[in-house]
Design brief:
β6 and β7 form a beta hairpin. The strands form 5 sheets. Strands 1, 3, 5, 6, 7, 9 and 10 form a 7-stranded antiparallel beta sheet that branches. A 5-stranded antiparallel beta sheet has the order 15-16-21-19-18, with no helix packed on it. It is rod-shaped and about 105 Å long. The protein contains 1 helix and 22 strands. The N terminus is likely disordered. With about 325 residues, the chain is mainly β.
Length: about 325
């Protein structure tokens, strides 16, 4: 009987003396396509899972976890923006500890004020016999839709053990300003895709008030193209309500018309049209910034119709 009791104590002692041990894992954060021209943020999340174990002496203790997350392999341009990379091109994003995405999730090791949120677990009986604790934390992310100079393609930032230091210890602390204890890590990545995109806007052409149309009447308008860097595009101008050739478009008032033309150059020698007039469209390559293209209009000498307002609507088509 004495031997049995001694053997039983020998088996229990390791459990009584065991210290807490935690393992961490994290899911990747994948954003859908990011439109850097509109600058609209895209949201996503990642989940950090934790599983801790201990001995009988740990039962009921408060386990403080400070999950430091650094800048990631893409770095951080400021306290407001971490970065994903595609070669030398960067895409801004940020990680937050709240669903409102107002509190940046930081680290005690990086140069910005933001720190990790406090996460606490209580060691309890698991499955009726094991001492431990499990839980999860949500990391909220926002791809910020900037800068507009980000090239189309896939962007990523990796978080290895270099950037994730999850401190844990028994503590009553309520902040993670200076975390300490045992360090665990977890690896995950943040990914996004920037799609090729273009935006177009126009400024109308107004030939003003004229008398007899005996000489050229010139005016200008513009087409502004904003395309992601490296995106090639073509801009065509339709034939207007009369579906006419570039230099024979018609402004109309009822059945009466005024002939006019639209051109690519200030001398009005290069008509600006569409695919129906070969060589008359305008091509360009996006830079991420607005590119203003002047449209040169001309009303040539012609028989003057009755007074009134003459108008035409030309459809601007940007193809990329």
């Amino acid at each position: 009987m004495l031997r049995s009791l001694t053997l039983l104590l020998a088996l229990l002692l390791p459990s009584l003396c065991a210290a807490q041990s935690c393992n961490f894992s994290a899911t990747n954060m994948n954003f859908s396509a990011v439109d850097t021209l509109s600058g609209t943020p895209v949201n996503s999340t990642s989940t950090i899972s934790v599983s801790c174990s201990g001995g009988l002496l740990d039962l009921g203790k408060r386990l403080l976890i400070c999950p430091d997350i650094g800048a990631g392999s893409g770095g951080a341009s400021s306290a407001a923006a971490r970065q994903m990379l595609n070669g030398s091109s960067s895409l801004n994003y940020q990680l937050y500890s709240d669903n409102g995405r107002s509190v940046v999730w930081g680290s005690s090791s990086w140069p910005y004020p933001s720190r990790a949120p406090v996460y606490a677990l209580t060691m309890a009986l698991l499955n009726g016999s094991l001492i431990g604790a499990t839980g999860s934390m949500t990391v909220y992310g926002a791809a910020l839709g900037s800068p507009p100079t980000a090239v189309p393609g896939s962007f990523t930032s990796s978080f290895t053990s270099t950037y994730t230091s999850f401190y844990y210890s028994y503590s009553s602390a309520t902040t993670c300003s200076a975390p300490s204890g045992t360090i665990g890590t977890a690896s995950f990545s943040v990914n996004a895709t920037v799609a090729a995109n273009c935006l177009v806007s126009v400024q109308n052409i107004d030939f003003g008030t004229q008398g007899v149309l005996s000489t050229n009447v010139d005016a200008t308008g513009s087409v502004t193209a904003t395309c992601t860097p490296g995106t090639t595009y073509t801009i065509s101008l339709g034939g207007g309500g009369a579906n006419a050739l570039p230099t024979a478009r018609k402004m109309a008032k009822g059945s009466e018309t005024v002939t006019y033309g639209l051109y690519k150059d200030t001398s009005r020698s290069q008509p600006w049209g569409d695919a129906n007039t070969p060589g008359s469209t305008v091509a360009g390559t996006g830079t991420g910034s607005a590119q203003l293209l002047t449209v040169y209009g001309r009303v040539p000498p012609q028989t003057t119709p009755s007074s009134g307002i003459y108008t035409d609507t030309v459809v601007v088509t940007l193809t990329y």
